[in-house]
Design goal:
Blueprint (H helix, E strand, L loop, with lengths): L1 E4 L6 H10 L4 E4 L10 H6 L7 E4 L2 E4 L1 H11 L10 H23 L9 H19 L13 H12 L11 H11 L2 H10 L11
Parallel strand pairs: 1-2
Antiparallel strand pairs: 1-3, 3-4
Helix pairs in contact: 1-3, 1-6, 1-8, 4-5, 4-6, 6-7
Length: 205
Amino acid sequence: MRLYWLPGTAAMAPHAALAEIGVDYELVLVERDEAGNSPPEYLALNPSGRVPTLEHGATVITESAAILLYLADRHPSARLAPSDRAAFYSWLVFLTNTLQTSLLRFVYPNRYGGAGVREVAAAEAHEHFRRLESELSGRKWLVGEHRTGADLYLLMLTRWGRDLAPPAWQSPNLRAHFSRTLALPGVRRMFDEEDLELPPWSADA
């Protein structure tokens, strides 16, 4: 399996999933030009030019959530998806369609109209994180009794929310979930391979 990636991007969750599964994989860094454009050979694979893309033989999968679902189906013993899929599907789509959209507008306001976009996006993201904070009350994982791909996705987005005021991981349940997920071997391998900085409050930072 070959994962095309950039550090700290939406490739984080699929990267962590591959490492959690324990399958052999190759990382291919997408070298963009000064204008931020992906090279032609990558555009031939993924016309949007965005990361991540997973290449598995003749199969090409784009979009983080789709890659997680593909990996969950290919490797059921890794338990990236619970047997009861309904809540898992709901939360994964919420994370990718709703929370991630707000965070993208917060991080890249000029892509979405500029003035005022960042403030509106921050308010939306806080609202979504409050919902997640409530959902995690009294539970370790977002869905079921074992970590799933939804937890890997939430860790990624909680990290993206580190520049919100206050940061997303300041909420106690989200911080506990982030710490718990960060302790997974595959997640730590992903952080190491992407050379990502650990949170300042992390015991290992």
